[in-house]
Design brief:
The protein is of the alpha+beta class and 386 residues long. The protein contains four helices and 21 strands. The radius of gyration is 47 Å and the shape is rod-shaped.
Length: 386
Amino acid sequence: MELGKGAADRKRKRIIQVVFILFMALLLFFTLFSNTLQSLTMPKVSTEKPKFGSLALTIEGSGILAPVAEAKLFSTTDWKVQQIFVKEGDRVKKGQKLVTYDSQPARQELELEITNLERQKIEQQNLQDQYILSSIEEDEIKMRNAKREIEKGKLDIAAQERKIHDMQERLNRDQVLMAPFDGIVTKLNAVEGLASAGEADVIVANSSQGYRFEVQADARKLSALGISAGEQIDVEVDLDQEQQASTLEGVIEEITRAEPLMESMSGEEEGKSVALPQKLLRIKLVDAKLKGGEQARINIRKNSLQEGLLVSSEAVHQDREGMYVFIVEEQRGPLGNDFIARKVNVQSSETSGNMTMIQSDSIFEEDRIILKSGEPLQDGNHVRLE
């Protein structure tokens, strides 16, 4: 009886042991299964590691070359245009004849004034004869009157001579329009047979002063690249429609403020706009081949002076508190590692293409920055890695 009882106890113990093992196995299975199910519900993210270095930046833009200095040449008379000696685009030398005007009315007026001067001289001779006659007659009163008339006549003759001289100078000056310096005819409004209509008859660009165009650029990029006034840059210019663009040397003549550029925000602040400061570059070129009106382009590619952590631009987000990224924080557990998304505020110094340079004391090169997520993330969310 005692042997049978002992065997039954051992059997019972084995059964309990088996049941316990099965229970623990089931418990472990369901624990692992529940963790697996839970992980499948977590946002799936892709990550990248930041790289330390400088950012390759590009400043580009285009404009139309306009002369730095030009002269608008007007006719100061209502004379009709007699002959035009140039056309738009012609190169001219200082003193070169551009336009002549029909000065016949002024010549007729000048001839009339010369005739009046001759008449005054004849009258002056008559007064002198009267003075001589009064002197012979010894008529003191007549002599004084004749002397006064002679002096008055001299003044009238001098005034008439000055008038004729001024008319001759005006005639010589106004009947011909001449180039004031070496340059290029950029505009021709004069029409043969017609008087000036109020606009400049000829506009001449001073080729020795060169040409300029303007380009608007991001102020932060200019600062990051250290670009300043006086710097020489390459400029592509379309000199001829039938030829390829030529590269000429230009100089940044001036950098001034420009109206800020409004850019739409992303992330939590989507739909709102932020003002991006802008600068206006005035670029000057001096080259004998230029005529003005050509299309000019710049494409400045340089590495930023500042260095920092480089990440993909799509990893950087923005809200009312500023810019931020999510990094993956790994926590070790008994059943495996947990991955948690942590929000880290950063400062963005510059963006170029799909890369952004960030500055933060909380991010290092070995950190994993979340690039994409299947769902919107919040600080502290559990995530699963691709």
